[in-house]
Amino acid sequence: MSYVISTILGFKGIIFVIAFLIFVFCLRYSTLIFDWIETQTLGTRTYIQERLELLFIEIPPDKLTMGLLIFSLGLSSFFLLLIGMSISWILGFIIGTGVAVLSFRIPKAIVDYLVERRIKQYQNQMVDGLTLLANGIRAGLSVPQALGMVVNELSPPISQEFGLILQQNRIGVTLEDCFENLAKRVPTEDNDMFVSSINILRETGGNLAEVFDTIVSVIRERVRLQQKIDTYTAQGMFQGVTIACMPFAIAGIYGASDPNSIKLLVNNPIGILLTFVALTLDFVGFWVILKIVKIKI
């Protein structure tokens, strides 16, 4: 009896020491911890809202917060009930918690993808846009008038970006600052070259039409080279996706043919830990492959 009591007291003492160390750590780094919490909650909402503005999409902050919470809690509850009722409530709780954390960050990745796709669309339209600008300037139009011609002739996103330049210029913002804002909204090398050249030539003088023709030739060569690289890296991308999906396919085959063979992976604590480690390594490997095959020019 005394041995059991001493064991319990010793166990409580260990818990007390661990709790005390956690308290000291949180007290010491409280500012960093609260900053991290704010970044992962309100900071995520602010980031998404700022990126949506780049897409010319306006969503009130309260509705955006409600949407993030509904998406995160709804998806985690779905996995909790699905896995808990079919396999194990412990595994369902673990996976549901992980899904809740990840799903709160999924919209951030989706918005980043939409912004990146919009930037690519803008790059693809730069050749036509700069060609129209050069033709307009040759015809005797001013830069704002040539920009208005591009807005009327081309489709979004380049028409929206150039239209925003004209709107900012009408309310009193200098044209140089308007182009600098464009470079911040669309941070590409081609766009930086376009903005720098037009601002410099407006101050020093020069033939804008010839400069735009030169930029167009550079962009065309860059696009041709990027297409060639995408063709060469397509096989690597396909291999990466195949390797990342292979563990899930094998688990599905074993689960359908012999469910008892994978029970230890979802019922045993060691099996759950190993499954989590395997999934983590799988995602890390897929991320590394994506970084390898993504080549910037």
Enumerate how many helices there are, as a single number.
13
Determine the structural class based on helices, strands and strand pairing.
mainly alpha
Q: Which H/E pattern describes the elements?
A: HHHHHHHHHHHHH
> pLDDT average, as an integer?
79
Topology record:
Elements: H1 2-28, H2 30-40, H3 42-54, H4 61-86, H5 89-103, H6 106-138, H7 143-153, H8 158-170, H9 175-185, H10 189-204, H11 208-257, H12 263-267, H13 269-293
Walk me through this protein's architecture.
It is a single chain. This protein is mainly alpha-helical. Among the domains are: 125-206, no CATH class; 227-293. The chain is 86% helix and 0% strand. The protein is built from 13 helices and no strands. The protein has helices at 2-28, 30-40, 42-54, 61-86, 89-103, 106-138, 143-153, 158-170, 175-185, 189-204, 208-257, 263-267, 269-293. Helix 3 (42-54) crosses helix 4. The longest helix has 50 residues, at 208-257. The protein is elongated and about 80 Å long.
Q: Which features characterize this protein?
A:
297 residues, mainly alpha, 13 helices, 0% strand, elongated
Describe, in short, the structure shown.
This protein has helices spanning 2-28, 30-40, 42-54, 61-86, 89-103, 106-138, 143-153, 158-170, 175-185, 189-204, 208-257, 263-267, 269-293. It has 297 residues and is an all-alpha fold.
